[in-house]
Amino acid sequence: MQFDIREFSVPAGANVEIIFENIDAMQHNLVIGQMGSQEKIGLAADKMITAADGAQKNYIPNIPEVIAYTALVDPDGRAKLVFKAPTTKGNYPYLCTFPGHWRIMNGVMKVE
Fold it and tell me: Residue 70: in which H helix or E strand, if any?
């Protein structure tokens, strides 16, 4: 239950395309957050487990710290995530927001 790529780099302001393949036996998603937002996004996602529509919202919190995301991807499924990288250089977290997963299923997108 970890991303196989723990870190990757993109040019500031570039168009980014990520193919997320879920080879695990449970659902996962991929959420890109603002710098320093991993815990805020993760804790907000954890709270969604008790919401009646949490799964329907793919456990993606509706907060400004979320830059881009995929829906939940079923086992052996894949999703394409296309977004514009931030223009500010730095380290941006990515994580799975299925409740509880973000603590170990995360990485860093370096904007250079």
Answer: none
